[in-house]
Amino acid sequence: MAVARRCDSCGKEITDNNPLVMKLWATAVSNGKIGRTSHNNYTHSLDVGQCCLIKVNAFGKWAQRKKQKARVKAA
User: Fold this and answer.
1) Residue 16 pLDDT > 90, yes or no?
2) 56 touches 50 (CB < 8 A)
3) Predicted model pTM
């Protein structure tokens, strides 16, 4: 029997009607910089279902990811 996947925020089951919409990873940051290996060395993860999308999305200001080309051009 397969284990049901659940939203880590509220505990509701992830189904077709409540799909997984976000996966968050926590990793250590050293001197305010995130290295390339940070993604590989995450310590915690969080699955968020559509049921809690508004709550997690309102958690703080989310910055859109910038590709390296855009970062170099902006500097």
Assistant:
1) yes
2) no
3) 0.67
Torsion of CA 32, 63, 48, 33, to 10 degrees: -10
Q: Give the pair of three-digit tokens for residue 69.
A: 């080309």
Q: What is the tens place of the pLDDT at every residue in 31-55? A: 777 766 677 778 888 999 999 999 8
Amino acid in position 46: L
Residue 72's SS3 state is helix
- Long-range contacts of the stretch 27-32 (C-beta < 8 A, 24+): none
Run of H or E including 53: helix 53-57
User: In this structure, what DSSP letter does residue 71 have?
Assistant: H
Instruction: List the Cα angle 22/26/27 in 5-degree steps.
Output: 140
Q: Which of 29, 24, 27, 23 is nearest to 42 (CA)?
A: 27
